[in-house]
Amino acid sequence: MKRYAYFISDGTGITAETLGNSLLSQFDKIQFERVTLPYIDSVEKAEAAVAKINQAAIDSESSAIVFDTIVDKNIRAIIDTADAFKVDIFAAFLAPLERELNVDSCYTVGKSHSPTDSANYLSRIDAVNFALDNDDGAKTRHYEEADIILIGVSRSGKTPTCLYLAMQFGIKAANYPLTEDDMADLSLPAFLQMHKHKLFGLTIDPDRLSAIRNERRANSRYASLKQCYHEVDEVELLYQREQIQSISTTDKSIEEISTRIMALAGLQRRLQS
Amino acid sequence: MKRYAYFISDGTGITAETLGNSLLSQFDKIQFERVTLPYIDSVEKAEAAVAKINQAAIDSESSAIVFDTIVDKNIRAIIDTADAFKVDIFAAFLAPLERELNVDSCYTVGKSHSPTDSANYLSRIDAVNFALDNDDGAKTRHYEEADIILIGVSRSGKTPTCLYLAMQFGIKAANYPLTEDDMADLSLPAFLQMHKHKLFGLTIDPDRLSAIRNERRANSRYASLKQCYHEVDEVELLYQREQIQSISTTDKSIEEISTRIMALAGLQRRLQS
To answer: What is the CATH number of the domain that holds B75?
Structure first.
């Protein structure tokens, strides 16, 4: 059975998508065809959206599910005419919150994501640039400024995690790839040792690592199971020996790796939501 | 007046945060102290969370607002004992959805974000690596493979937008910085011309650009108002002459720039949500 799911917003659609996908993920027997319609901020766009939703209902022989976060009452009224089951996020929660907080909500179109305040924008860009400049051990002289330094073997997930920490939380995250040279020694390189309180280790299942490396360099020594087992063993011993906190990235999304690191390292987000 | 807002989840907390912040942004007269408590997946952690919430209520002399997406009934029951106004996202919407879809939801702990399926993880990492490899005009020989190529003057937002498109949507986005040389010519460089259908222009208010560049290189010619006005004028003329779609990044968040580009360029996300 297939059902259409629409995420409709007068802004980016991110809230509608995030909540909608969370709810839909609880129904794994049903196949959903997902469509996001952002920036529905005029009568014309709303009418075009309704036409699409109604066509989807005909095609799939069942009403679409609509998740919406539109705040303008006139545009909402148009969306309401569609042949759909509506999950109306703001209607469900804004009125009870107004009573609890004892004030009216401002109910402004697209208020939740824009305009971004300028200080926030700049610190986010700063953090992204920091992650790019300090990726893959390229520079180690900025480690003083880092909030956290991720270490781990090649392809264990360091780069995307650093970028996500920067983008989502404004955290300045550097990363340093541990190679066999680093692991053979009994101690960390001096430039890591002096920032030991900022180090956080990534580890990964060796079979998974081998599969990822094979995507990059098929049938290489680098991607071989033997090499992957060896490197992961060594790196886990290093974390233990040096008492460096670590997590496994196997079967985790970048969001999950990042939010777990935030919690385990006790980092506070540097961006106002 | 200050109120505490808690985002509580047995997973990353991203759904609770996203919805919660959207709702709270409608109340701009109230100052919220926001706290995210992810991975609340045991009785002990839930009890610790309740203690924090109750302490916050005492400190702020008013009940906290709690947004939660916990699915385990026992853990939920503990959170319910806190002195708080609860916005219970799953309780509000799952039962009506179950009736509409005529199936029970699986109600699995943390199901919405993990485990990620492996194909999704790899295409996301691929897209992030593509953005990194093709940043700032570093390489132009992979443009064949790009889904989109962002062009614009230095510091107009190309890099963070490419990274967000990769991370969030799995889109392979390259970017090329337009310099005075490119703009002086009457035509695009050949390697851009041949991918003209993939080009998307960024522009920015010159005063804002000057402020951003001054953060990087204070009082330089590069950051001067005169130079910024000149470059932005030229680049907007180029977009017009070559009929390249463009948007202004001024006062927009990276999310908004990215989702608008997705919609305007007609790009489809390459990741399953």
So the answer is: 3.40.50
Nearest CA in chain A to B262: A38
**Cβ atoms within 10 Å of A217's Cβ, excluding its own:** 11
ipTM attached to this prediction: 0.87
Residues 22-81 of B with CB under 8 A from A: 22-23, 25-30, 34, 36, 38-39, 63, 65, 69, 71
pTM score: 0.89
Quick check: is B196 in a domain? yes
Per-residue model confidence as pLDDT tens digits over A237-262:
999 999 999 999 998 999 999 999 99
Q: Which residues form the domain of A47?
A: 1-99
Residues A177 and A58 reside in one and the same domain: no
* pLDDT tens sequence across B220-254: 999 999 999 999 999 999 999 999 999 999 989 99
Cis peptide before B115 (omega within 30 of 0): yes
A17, A113 contact by CB (below 8 A): no
- In sequence order, the β-bridge partners of residue B85 are B65
Sequence length of chain A is: 273
Q: Does residue A110 fall inside a structural domain?
A: no
| Residue A7 resides in a domain | yes
Flag if A26 and B121 touch (Cβ within 8 Å): no
- The distance in angstroms from the start CA to the end CA of chain B is 38
Q: Which residues of B are less than 8 Å from A253 in CB distance?
A: 12, 113-116, 121
